[in-house]
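Protocol step 4 of 6.
Sequence for GTP cyclohydrolase 1 type 2 homolog (Flavisolibacter tropicus) entered exactly as in the expression construct, tag removed. Do not edit the line below.
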Amino acid sequence: MVFIHELVNSLEQFAPTALQEAYDNCGLLTGTPHTACTGVLTTLDVTVDVLREAKENGCNLVVAHHPIIFGGLKSITGKNYVEQVIMEAIKNDIAIYAAHTNMDNVLLGVNGKMSEKLGLTNTAVLSPKQKILRRLITFAPNNKANEVRDAVFAAGAGHIGQYSDCSFNSKGVGTFKAEKGADPYVGEIGKLHEEEETKIEIVYPFYLEQQVVKALIENHPYEEVAYDIFTMENVHWGIGSGVIGELPFPMEENDFLKQIKDTFQCGAVRHTPLTGKKVKKVALCGGAGAFLIKKALSDGADFYITADVKYHEFFDAEGKMVIADIGHYESEQYTVELLHDLIAKKFPTFAVLKTSINTNPIQYFV
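Step 5 output, C-alpha cells:
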C-alpha cells in the first residue's frame, strides 16, 4: 500500500516546495496526506474533465503543474471553474497536488525537460539563485569527528555540484567547564577541560536545515552541541530560473524555428526578426519568461524560447537574439511526462497515468 504523503515526499525530494516563488501555492491542495493512494494522474492543469478522467481510472490523486488555488477562497459555491474543480475533487475524494515554480527552479525540472526535447547539450541554469546555501560549522572531539560528519552527510549536506561528502576540517583545542547539574561527555564538574577537537565546515541548501541540525545533535557526543550557521552569498548552480545550453550542431534560423514548432506542436510561433546568424546557443524558460530576456541576451544566446511575451518586450532582443514565444501550454506540456516519470521511477509497480486531455484554453484559427 502506498500513501499520498509517500508520493508527495518523492516529488519534494526532487523539487522541494521551499523553492517555490513567494506568490506561488505549491503542495497538497485538497485531500489528506495519510490516505492510501489508489492511482495517480498527472496533468498540466486541473479541470473538472481531468478529475472525471481520474475517477474513471481509479486515481484518487491528481498531480498538476499549475495550482488550482492561487489566492484565498471566501466561498465555494461553484460560481467559477476554480470552485467547480474544488467541489468536484472533495465530492469524489480526489487529492490535488501542485508542483509549480519549485519544479521550474530545479535544473532537471520543467526547463530541463524542454531542453531535453530540443536535444540541447551542456545545459545549465540560466539565472541561478543566491542565498540558497548555508554553511554549518561545528566542533567534535577528534575520535567522534567522522561519526558526526557522516551523519550530517547522510542528512543531505555536503553536496557541491557533482561532488558529495564535501567538508573542510581543521584541528584545534576546545575548552569548557561543566557546571553543577551537567552531564559532560568528557571532563569533570567544576574543572576547566581542554579537548583536542576537529572543526567541521559543511554546506547544505537551506531547505534541508531542520534535518541537518537534527542529525548533528542526535549524533554528536556532547550534551550541549556548539554550532554556527551562516547564509552564503554564493549562487547555487543547480537552482534557479530558465536553462541555457547548446545545439549539437549549428542550425539555420528557419530550420530551428521549424524544429521548435514541431517539437512543441505549436499552432504558431511569435518571434522577433531573424538575425541572419546560425543558431548554436539556446536559452529557454517554460511559461511566462520575459523576465529572463536580458539575461539570455547577456549570456550570448542566439535564441530565447519562452511564452507570454508582451509587445514591447520583444524589442528587448535588440536585433542580437531571436525571441520565440511558443505559447504557455506548449512550453510546459512535457511537464505532464516529467511528473509521470518521476513518480513511476520511484514507484515502478504503482498505477501512474498521464492525462489524455489537452487543457490548453487557447486555440488557433489558421
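Step 6, annotate. The two ends are 49 Å apart (CA to CA).
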